[in-house]
Amino acid sequence: MALMSITYYSQVMDLDLSVQVLYPDKGRVENPDDTDIPVLYLLHGMGGRDTTWLRLSSLERLVRKTNLIVVMPDTHNGWYVNTQYGYPYFDALAIELPAVLQRFFPHMTDKREKTFITGLSMGGYGALRLALETSRFSYAASLSGALSFKDFDPRTESLGNTAYWTGTFGKIIDWESPDNPHSLINLAKTADKDTKMYIWCGEQDFLIGANDFAAQSFKDLGYDVDYQTAPGKHEWYYWDKQLEVVLSWLPIDFQLEERLS
């Protein structure tokens, strides 16, 4: 895969943003001149950035023979929402970034059925939020996602102080902010139920309760949800293994390198 690091001016944010892009190489994929290449948006978690998936996972090795564009944007710790403190990350990533990338990569698909999104932890919330609130993504996956704050107060988990959470979401614990992760369930009630979901969480992860609640809520609303749990913590060892599962789940010709039996 060709790796491109792009810095571009975001009119929405009024600042420069960065994005990493993996693009199929000639000689490694079967259709290098395809003019409708599928695209996967891959979102980082809290404390991460646009390079985190590249540094801490097997991503590049996994997709090196697959005709797939992988886009890794940077949202800082902004939760992929239009924050209360003034930075509209949701608009920048859900609306502006796809248009920017289409100018850079005209062979990147603009079809919903070939556009996918995945994220971990904060990015798991972001992936489902962007999929539910736009009509852009047909498949959305969350790994150890912060999908609800039901029975969980983030202020007690050393994940930021009250000022940070209020600045991001508003009155987060009072459920008054429409951006609150718990509000994903309300958002899903009116969203396009054609979006297919894959949700995974480790059984020892502090977010397992939130994932149990969210996955069942989505199923009750009629979504096609593949919910999986297994022994695991909130760690990259497990997310790296799940990345291969997600790539196999997507409707792409995933060309994993052959292994000796």
UniProtKB/TrEMBL annotation:
GO molecular function: acyltransferase activity, transferring groups other than amino-acyl groups
Domain of life: Bacteria
Cross-referenced Pfam families: Esterase
TM region positions: none
InterPro entries: AB_hydrolase_fold, Esterase-like, Mycobacterial_A85_antigen
Organism: Streptococcus himalayensis
Protein name: Tributyrin esterase
